[in-house]
Design a protein that fits this description.
Blueprint (H helix, E strand, L loop, with lengths): L1 H7 L8 H8 L3 E5 L4 E3 L7 E7 L2 E5 L7 E6 L4 E2 L2 H4 L7 E4 L3 E7 H10 L1 H18 L6 H14 L7
Antiparallel strand pairs: 1-8, 2-7, 3-6, 3-8, 4-5, 4-7
Length: 162
C-alpha cells in the first residue's frame, strides 16, 4: 500500500524509477491513532511528514494566548517542514484528529540527499517549496521559500516565519 501511495503523491510525480528508488530509502511509514500527538511545539524538529490517510491538526500556542488550530493537513499534504528548513525546533505542534497513515523522512536525510544526489535533492526541495509557499499566508513567492530551504539545509538555520 505504501509503495502505491508513494507513487501517487504529487511531490514524487514524474520522477524516474532511479529517483523513486533513491527516495524510498529515506521515507518510512508510521501509523497514528486518533488524538495521538506526533510532536509538540518546541520539540526538536527531526522529521518531515506526508499524510497518506487521515488528518492531522497543526496547533500553535502563542505566548500570550490559548492554543489555536492553524491548519488541518489532509492526504497528500506535508507538515513538520521545520525539519526540512534545518530549524532546531518545531514552531507548531501536530496531532492526529483521526487514525492516520503518514510517511516521514528525517530532515538530516533530506540534507544528505541534496548533498549526495543534487539533481533529485533539488527537485524534491523545489516541490516542497511549492507546497510550503501555498501554505504560507504571507508568502506567495516560490523562489523565496526555495532559498529558505536551501539555506536551512546548508546551514541549519531557522528561517523567518518557519
Amino acid at each position: 500500500m505504501l509503495y502505491k501511495a508513494f507513487n501517487q503523491l504529487t511531490i514524487f510525480e514524474g520522477l524516474n524509477a532511479s529517483q523513486q528508488g533513491l527516495l524510498r530509502q529515506y521515507f518510512f511509514a508510521c501509523e497514528c491513532s486518533g488524538n495521538q500527538i506526533i510532536f509538540e511545539q518546541g520539540e526538536p524538529a527531526e522529521f518531515l511528514y506526508i499524510v497518506i490517510e487521515g488528518e492531522v491538526a497543526i496547533r500553535f500556542k502563542p505566548d500570550d494566548g490559548p492554543e489555536l488550530i492553524v491548519s488541518r493537513i489532509k492526504p497528500g499534504e506535508v507538515f513538520g517542514w521545520s525539519a526540512a528548513f534545518g530549524s532546531g525546533t518545531y514552531t507548531s505542534g501536530a496531532v492526529c484528529t483521526q487514525s492516520a497513515i503518514l510517511m516521514r523522512v528525517r530532515g538530516s536525510d533530506l540534507k544528505m540527499l541534496r548533498e549526495n544526489h543534487p539533481e533529485t535533492g533539488i527537485l524534491i526541495l523545489e516541490r516542497l517549496a511549492s507546497i510550503v509557499a501555498r501554505r504560507m499566508e504571507n508568502t506567495q513567492d516560490h523562489s523565496q521559500v526555495m532559498a529558505f530551504l536551501e539555506h536551512g539545509l546548508k546551514n541549519g538555520v531557522k528561517p523567518i516565519g518557519g
